[in-house]
Protein 1
Amino acid sequence: MNNEEEYKKLEKANTCEEYFDKWLEDFEIANPTGEYFLDPENADSSLVCNIQTKLEFLLHTLEIFGLPVDYINGAGHHLNWNEKAKANQQRGKKKKATGGGKGGKGMTKLERMQQ
Amino acid sequence: MQAAKDAQNKKPEHFDLEPFKKAFKSFITISAEFRSQLRTHFAQKQDDLINCFRDEHEENSFKRCIDIREIAPRLKTNGFPIDQQMEENLGALLLCFGDIAFESGYGERVPPETDEQRKAKMLLEMRRADRAKQGDGKGDKKLQKQLTTEELEKKKKEDDDWKKEEEKLMNQMKPDKPMKVLLNLTSIHDLLNSVDDMATYDRMLTELAMTEFEQFDDEDRALAALGKPFDKGQQLLPELEEHRKYSDDGQIQSICEQINDLVTIPDPPESAKNAFAITLFCMEAAVDSRSIDFLKYAFNLFPDRDYLIITQPHTVPENALLSKFTLVPKTMNNTFAHVLYLIHRDYLLEQDIEVTRTTPEDYKQISELLFSNPTVTFDSPELTMGMFKQATSADSPWIAFSARVEDSVVAAFLISKDVNLEYYVSHFHVQDQILMGEHDRKGHSRLVYSIINPIFEKSTRFLMKELLRLSDKTSLYFEIQTKTVIPTIF
């Protein structure tokens, strides 16, 4: 992504088209047809079939690694935004109060933690 | 200015790629090499791995007792070389690449440390270290002597303040009470299976050239040291021999070989036919009781056949002829509308049955009868045989009887000489069945064991009456226990 502005313009539709679909372009899932499973010749309890699309497969796999369920529809986006914004504000205020500088260089670690 | 500030603080509405990036990063860090290293560690320290699976009593368990997310911290505690990456992603790794089996269930767990608790913990550590530095002890006593009263008071106040602060921090860092949480419980067995599955997956990817990693040397060495080298490749199953032999009988074999479908029931060879059937039977009602007389002549017409069978709809009442036939029990999946009756040629000798006390000459035949019993595996025939042998001695608590047709033993019975009548009377409504006063105290007996050749099953009533007559008993009891096979005579 080129810059912050471009990132802020992202929506579900264009993200899927511009990014996910592009990333998965060369990836193929070979799904057998229903006929194969309806054929009694192939009756085998150990047979496993993936009926997910490429994107579903990717997202479902990443859900195991912490991606929020239903992420594609907005779940888990900008999580804890309000708290983060609040923390940012407080940090800004403190910087001002301590005369700015990089993290209040004059303070010890203990003092910073106590604050 | 304010509007701009508000806009800055407003929750953005654009698509957030951060969660995706975070999850994707975790996913790609678990490379094939990383997985191979993990398996190597597991193989090298399998005992420690087993020790991680402890139940709530801190005892090693093979049951599903720990949560998938708890495996990494436990391994770390047990001294496994686990870095932060592995600690964070081990559960996901086992789920994703090993398809680890688990069952969901609720269990009590202490909630994870909050930021506040972590902060308090760090503060306490730092304050303690600080104080340790300040109060560096050498010459402390000397110093104390030189301190003025004010200084001493000040120091005391400082100490008090520190104690209060320490207490406050201790309270803050105190872990929360355990609470019920949903756990994905797994066992050591599931873990090892999942590690095997993961290995198969990785090796297959290497074989298919879908991954660049192919350095399984360390893992192979560790597995070889463990005595469980990786089974390379799929082993072909031996080819199945076509089922060709159906019977030792040449005629049956040749008939079976000609069958090409599952519907045809071929005609059996003559040598296999051992029964003939009554297909039509008419009798004047007045002489119905004499219909048995025909049986002898019927068998004479078929000297090579042992059984005579007859089927009739289950709604038709039994006539006098059938009183000598044995009703064959139906199998569970039988949908045939008729009931089957059967009689063996030897049953024509029924009027010659003779019941006597068992003699040592009967042992062999009784033993054959016992061992031919289909329930023999549950009955322990050796024990029963021992009881029969003992019953022939005078001091035995049992009496044994044998029923013979000519010289063959067709039934054997074991009854007791006495019964615990008081027990029966106190525990069962015996009086509802018999008039106690009409029976002599010595007239009660218990049937301990009975075995009858099924051909003569129809004569059971006669045999029992003979038993009572010969033993001078008037009532017979039968005790049923949990595994008692209820004889057909009841």
Protein 2
Amino acid sequence: MNPVGHVRALVATWRGRFILAFIVVQLLLPLTYYLVRRDPHDERFAWRMFSPMRMAQCTPQISVDKQPVQLMATFHEAWVEMVGRGRFSVVEAMAAKLCAQNPGKRVEVSLDCTYLDRTPAHFGGQDMCTHPRL
Amino acid sequence: MAKKSKHGRGKQRRQAARDERVAVEKVIATSPQVPAEEPAFWFGFDVSWAKLVLGRFVLFLLLAIDSLLNFSHAPRYGAGDFNVAQLPLLDGLAPTRPSYAIGQLACAYLFALIACGAATRIALPIVAAIYGWLYFGSHLDSYQHHYLMWLILVLSCFVPWQKPADAVPATRIRSWALRLILVQLGILYLWAAISKINPAWVDGRTLSQQVVGSMKSLITSTVGFKIASVMVILVELTLAFTVWIKRTWWIAAPLGLLLHIGIVMTGLEIGLFAWLMIGMYIFVVPDRIWGWLAERSPLPTLRGFLGVVADWFAGAAGWILWVIAGALGLILALVARYDHAGAVGLVLIAALIGLTIYDRKHVARIALAHLVAFTLWTIVDRATTTAPDYYRFWGGSSRRLGDTKTAEYAYRKMTEVAPNEGAGHFQLGRLLLARDASDEGLTELHRAEELEPLKARAYVAEAKWLLQHGRRDEAIAKVREGTIVEPTDSEARSLLDSLVGGTK
């Protein structure tokens, strides 16, 4: 059966439509990492097991009105480890929690990351309560 | 008379084995009977029953064990009232410590049921939903393999895992979903290879920093990391195009098995993932190999025997087995060391009743699977440190987050489930001393000193307490004992030096 006939036959049944949708999603979803994802450290759904990015090491510094926050005493160590890998969404959620706990105060987050395959990068530095994204 | 009966049973088993062999030949000659719907690539894809049943048993048994091993991760869920869901819509439904723990126990139970071929049509969608909730509900444990396993579970809902009537090892079973699972593996390998087309991977730096253990020395002393890294890309690209095509399984099976056995040897902390992938390759190893193995002695005789045994439990005996399995399951749940195990065991009795109503034709099979599930709970509980680890992690995170009351409770539970582990007594002792429960605290530290004969930490903790209470000489004697049992402990050494220096 030629490819067009193959797809037409698939579209004709619910099982075929499911198969098509599943394959299209699975082929395209990892592309989002390369094309649209703003956080290079977030490799979820992209099948980037053991990639060089996995070796990224980030040092976070979070402060509330210039007073450093002890991350291990504030968040579970598993989350702190994730911040050490630079996961933006986790860092931003931590900042959001600190903003909610300290209304009117300045919550600053900075993330310094080193990589195997690129030059070191610095993220953040602004007041996360007014600009909540890194 | 008894001898005659024994001979009679032997004859029965031999006859059953003969009957099966005849049936195999018949099936090989005639199956598949119905022409496949188009496109045959999907709807005509079939595998032998031998392969399907072996794959089902191994894959879901591994998943059951994996769930039980994940149980100790529960304390990180909801700790410090913080969570980031992978899907924002799940933020309000994020798993917490108890719900994660209960979810993993339920998953382990359902996986064991599926492994045994019991109520797969209802158990699979339920377990896929629980697994998906646990995975997508939090970034914690958001590893790619959990995502892959969830996808496989969703697709498995459409695989006919239960034994068709009169099926024999060679019976062909059609499954488009199984083909899709293999295509999914192909997509995974393709993207994994693409992600490695990067100078930091190709020159061997990434691999050399990730691999530890025996595999590291093997690679260093043979091809080196640069060549090994390029080989990994080539293997993944080859698997991307061969793992889902029957004609190329003879290439994919050895390559894939070698790749994943290699990953097992790397020492990476990825749980049972590499083993799960090895289990997946049961579906890639060519059917004729499983068919050949299924006909080797004593398997045909064993199958015949099991068929006879199954017949014994077809009627009222099945219900007797059901009652026994229910009671034994509850006892095993009550003696399990997992938090909430008793309550989950009671709920699963209700699940047993529900599943039996759903599938009354297979009462004995469901009962047996129920018993297998709880036996697996017990084996993993008693053979690993999962249950004490759960309390240790809970106590540790609560202590660090400033919730000393919860930490004390968790460490107390730890000393109950693992009375011979020094860590629980040491941590509990420290917490008790910190809140001036001195007698009990010292008793716990003394117990830790007994159980950890080569560790100085309990001696140091006791010495510090003695010092705080003005008992300097006793503190010096205690910390000196600490330096004797663990001469390399820097804290004990510096405390002793500071005390002795102060005396001088």
